[in-house]
Amino acid sequence: MIKHIPPPLGSDANSGFVSRIMIVDDDEAHLDFIKAVILKERFNCWLTLCSGAREALEFVRHNPLDLMLLDVMMPEMNGLEMIRRMKQDPQTALVPVIFLTSSQETDAILQAYEAGATDFIAKPVNSAVLAARMQAILQRVGLENELKLRNQELLQINRIKDELLSVCSHDLRAPLAAIEVICQRLGADMAETAEPDCKIQLGKIVTQSRLARRLVENLLDYHKIEEGMLVPSPSFFGVRDFLTICAEQEQPQIQNKGLTLRSKLPDEDLVAFGDRDLLAQAVRNILGNAVKFACKNISLTARLEASEDDAGGGSRLIISITDDGPGIDPDRSGQIFQKYTKADPNDSGSGLGLYIASKAVEAHAGSLTVASDPGRDTIFTIALPHAYSRDQLPDLSTVSEARGLILSASKCSVGLLEGVLTEAGMLDVNVCTDDLACLDMLELQTPEFVVIDLENPACSTFNLVKLINRAGLGVHLIFYGSAFQIEEFSKYVNIPFIPLASPLEPMELLRLIGDLLLKKSGEEKTVSVKSR
What we know:
By secondary structure, this protein is an alpha/beta fold. It has helices spanning 28-40, 53-62, 79-88, 106-115, 127-189, 196-226, 239-256, 276-293, 330-333, 353-362, 411-423, 435-445, 461-471, 483-490, 506-518; strands at residues 2-5, 19-24, 45-50, 67-71, 97-101, 119-122, 235-238, 260-264, 270-274, 297-306, 315-323, 367-371, 378-389, 403-407, 428-432, 449-453, 476-481, 498-501.
């Protein structure tokens, strides 16, 4: 039986906060006594009375409570078992519970606290003690609820602020870029006629517009990170050209400070795989940080390093940026990659540059570290997987017209898989995000291969395989996922499929597709499915 009693008229206890209290006791007389104590003290609360533990447990799972007064000894389920079940359920785990029991043995008290009780009162209950302890718990709960409300309000304000920054940053990017281009054209047009001071001032405008544009780009990237939308769009790119452009874009700031940039870059045959724009933002942010603190010199180096973890035979790209500034205090070096943290507290920057750089590198499964001591050089090191010499890349341009199909519900997975294939020369790579669209495309075009993403399946991959089997389509099936996912899936289907392990090693995918498309084979491929 459950009975509800509304707050008493004129109650003033816990003013402004209407608490929700439940009494659970199979003894009707004791239930009435506890109710009378609460009503006498005029607690501002909704009061719920229940005489059975199972009924009370079901009620609290669907109705929030601020306090429960729970009898230990009850038929069907005792109080200890009930609170253990409450603590196992995230919906009820945080409800404060005062145990009421006639036992005053130490073991019984310890069992109550071990089960998760907030407090313990022995029967016969002293009404003054009960009221005081309830008052203390409800005051704490009221403060916690108020704090949660304030936190929600702050989160909402923060979201509005981030959205405003994102919109403003997006709208500012175009005019800032236009200012930079106009100044560069003016400088070119007046190269022979303009006064030296005019050229200097134009250079300053270009420098400041680039700094402002970097701030705008950082704010946009920050918003993407906070919203979980920072998704790389990877492709293969030449490392030497990439770093040369990054250095050229920072050259005005370097010259304005009278610094020297020394570069030691790899030859043109070194290529990396990643989101070129996102990684360029990371490198420029670190170079910009070096410009702020360098005394005379900055160095930019890149090299290839063997990676034992790279099953595809690739290596790691190591990019190092060094400045001869005052160094970083060891107490601050572990914090400089956190948002709004600055290497120098007096720095006027946003404190987002190194944070954005670290997140961009992390999005590529790489690492960004710093080594520095006060009075010594500061070295930032970016380590990125998937770097190769150009002659390692299989050329799929000879099979550019071969059709490929990718089935995945994940934008990130699709971008990664499609990016590798198109960069290698394949022109006809299609994407599907649901099973039926995939089957329609299979019937219309009959691609040479289908990559099925098991990490982010589009509806039912198992049902799709059955449909492919019924249609009698002879295509190469590639299953992309973790070793566990591929193994589990193979238990239910008998398919001549090719496994492609995640995280993706781009060279592995290229070699796999190359082997499929470049070798001559007239053997028919069929698909069959086991019954469950």
